[in-house]
Amino acid sequence: MLLIGQYDSPFVRRVAIALHCYQLPFEHRPWSVWSDAEQIAAHNPLRRVPTLLLEDGTALVETFTILDALDELAGPKRALVPAAGPDRRAVLRVAALSAGVADKAVTLLYSALELVKPSERWTGRCRTQISDTLALLESERAARSTPYWFGDAMSHADIALSCSYRFTREAHPGLIDASALPHLAAQAARCEALAEFRRVYLPITNQLTKT
Ligand SMILES: N[C@@H](CCC(=O)N[C@@H](CS)C(=O)NCC(=O)O)C(=O)O
User: Fold this and answer.
1) Mapping DSSP to helix (H, G, I), strand (E, B) and coil, where does residue 139 land?
2) What is the domain partition of the chain in residue ranges?
3) If you measure from the C-alpha of residue 146 to the centroid of ligand 1, how many angstroms do you get, rounded to a whole number?
4) How far is the CA of 34 from the centre of ligand 1 (A)?
């Protein structure tokens, strides 16, 4: 397998951490969506990352699709999400809310870097979407005392939250008031201390268009 995309992307990071958790061997091509767009286009006309090339040459796009394939490869016993039912939906719901935060934080970063020129109305909306979603997640996490979101074992919810939380804080200093999100901060810190998370990290630069 071959993973395309830089680790400053919260989405690429999430896939790479899952690959390490599953101990699935993979090659990494840290291609930039800007300067290496045409190399990415050879596999994914959307020119987006993460893109995962499977052994049979299939190029998978979109984080949720990629993780679905990895979960299947890992098998039901090791999968970072329950196979079915309310427990599965609960993990996917937290992972999707967390991924939505990253989505909005990436949009805001592109506007800060003037790659797009949105209105104040749009950027204000993104900020509200991020802070309201994190506030909801904080209240839900506060109601749980387990080391990971859904118990003693890590799930996709933990990886998604940690990647989104770290990216949003680093891309937008001051946007998130960490003191108002103590349970999310503790949850993210616990995950970031793990080897699987530490080995998959690239600081965000202000030079995204040139890297
Ligand atoms: N929904 C997508 C989001 C991926 C995404 O936004 N990736 C960014 C990098 S962080 C990207 O490819 N940006 C270039 C573009 O969208 O054209 C997923 O989950 O895979």
Assistant:
1) helix
2) 2-74, 85-193
3) 31
4) 12
Q: Is the CB of 155 under 6 A from ligand 1?
A: no
Residue 4 parent element (H or E): strand 2-4
Which atom number of ligand 1 is nearest to the Cα of residue 46? 17
Contact criterion met (CB below 8 Å) for 163 and 17:
yes
Q: Is 9 in the pocket of ligand 1 (CB under 6 A)?
A: yes
- Please check whether the domain covering 2-74 is classified as CATH 3.40.50.2300: no
Strands 51-53 vs 2-4: parallel, antiparallel or unpaired: antiparallel
- Condensed to tens digits (0 to 9), the pLDDT of residues 25-67 reads 999 999 999 999 999 999 999 999 999 999 999 999 999 999 9
User: Is residue 49 within 6 Å of ligand 1 at its C-beta?
Assistant: yes
**What CA–CA distance (Å, rounded) separates 143 from 108?**
30
Q: Answer for the pair 197, 20: CB distance below 8 angstroms, yes or no.
A: no
CATH class of this structure's domain 85-193: mainly alpha
pLDDT, tens digit, 9 for 90 and up, residues 161-207: 999 999 999 999 999 999 999 999 999 999 999 999 999 999 998 55
What is the distance in A from the centroid of ligand 1 to the CA of 199?
Answer: 21
- Largest Cα–Cα separation, the chain: 47
Q: Which amino acid is at 189?
A: A
